[in-house]
């Protein structure tokens, strides 16, 4: 909920910033024809014209990108997957911060003064001075957006991984640790290749489960973790029973990685296969 509030505030701030950019660019365009003429005879005037265009465009793009990204994250963040969820905010924070520095260095200089300190007190320069005021506000907006994206980056990691299940419900994927299985344990998990012998032929036993990383139903082999005090064979038989409903017993054991052959009975409490 808090993360959505941050994104919502970014939408409002970015919308305000977009209005400031629009006015600033509109006012500066009033002086572009004169600047173009000067650029033909002065390399410095040409450089200033180029930087004016690129800095204003960069500021507008960063603000519009923040608005768009915030809308997308607040309306369907979980559906885009955890890669987008975790990386979108840090990337946007760096992008907006870099844009703010680029804009500030040209319009305010590196002395820390405000953009409005460069106002020109001459006739017919009111539009230019207003453009400076709007540019100063755009810088402030970019500063607030940088803070917002930094905060949302932190909150995304604190809130944990979320995913949308097969019913469209957003859930938090909870992780667990296994202190009962030290790193020195030879085997931590088992996976079974189970074949059912029928009069019509052999059938491979698979299961269908919803997996959060894939965001969809996945066909897979029965598998699971080895519990404390449990042998590999016991874990394999238990997981096979829990996930498919088949009971089995070890009839042959092989050295090395210990692949096993089981004798299985048809489950008497399951009338369908996943």
Strand content: 15-25%
How many separate domains make up the residues? 2
Spatial separation of the terminal alpha carbons: 36 Å
Q: Summarize the amount of helix as a percent range.
A: 40-55%
In total, the number of strands is: 10
Largest sheet, described in full?
2 strands, antiparallel
Number of helices: 6
Poorly predicted segments:
261-274
Class computed from helices, strands and strand pairing: alpha+beta
Descriptive notes:
There is one protein chain. With 274 residues, the protein is α+β, with helices and mostly antiparallel strands. It folds into two domains: 1-173, no CATH class; 182-273, Alpha-Beta Complex (Nucleoside Triphosphate Pyrophosphohydrolase), CATH 3.90.79. It is built from six helices and ten strands, in the order αααααββββββββαββ. The strands form five sheets. It has a two-stranded antiparallel sheet. Strands 3-8 form a two-stranded antiparallel sheet. A two-stranded antiparallel ribbon has the order 4-5. The two termini are 36 Å apart. Mean pLDDT is 79; it is low at 261-274.
């Amino acid at each position: 909920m808090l993360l959505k509030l941050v994104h919502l505030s970014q939408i409002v701030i970015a919308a305000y910033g977009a209005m400031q950019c629009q006015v600033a660019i509109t006012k500066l365009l009033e002086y572009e024809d004169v600047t173009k003429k000067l650029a033909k005879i002065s390399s410095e005037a040409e450089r200033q014209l180029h930087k004016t265009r690129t800095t204003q465009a960069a500021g507008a793009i960063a603000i519009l990108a923040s608005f768009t990204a915030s809308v997308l994250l607040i309306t369907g963040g979980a559906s885009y997957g955890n890669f987008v969820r975790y990386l979108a905010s840090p990337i946007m924070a760096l992008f907006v911060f870099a844009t703010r520095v680029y804009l500030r260095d040209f319009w305010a200089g590196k002395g820390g003064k405000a953009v409005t300190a460069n106002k020109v007190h001459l006739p017919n320069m009111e539009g230019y001075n207003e453009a400076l005021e709007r540019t100063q506000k755009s810088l402030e907006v970019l500063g607030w957006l940088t803070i917002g994206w930094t905060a949302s980056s932190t909150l995304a990691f604190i809130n944990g991984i979320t995913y949308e299940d097969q019913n469209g419900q957003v859930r938090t994927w909870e992780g667990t640790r296994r202190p009962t299985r030290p790193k020195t344990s030879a085997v931590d998990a088992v996976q079974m290749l189970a074949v059912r012998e029928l009069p019509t032929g052999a059938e491979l036993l698979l299961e269908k489960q919803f997996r959060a990383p894939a965001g969809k139903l996945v066909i897979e082999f029965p598998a699971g973790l080895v519990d404390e005090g449990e042998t590999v064979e016991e874990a394999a038989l238990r997981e096979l029973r829990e996930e498919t409903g088949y009971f089995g017993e070890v009839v042959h054991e092989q050295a090395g990685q210990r692949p096993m052959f089981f004798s299985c009975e048809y489950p008497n409490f399951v009338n369908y296969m996943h």
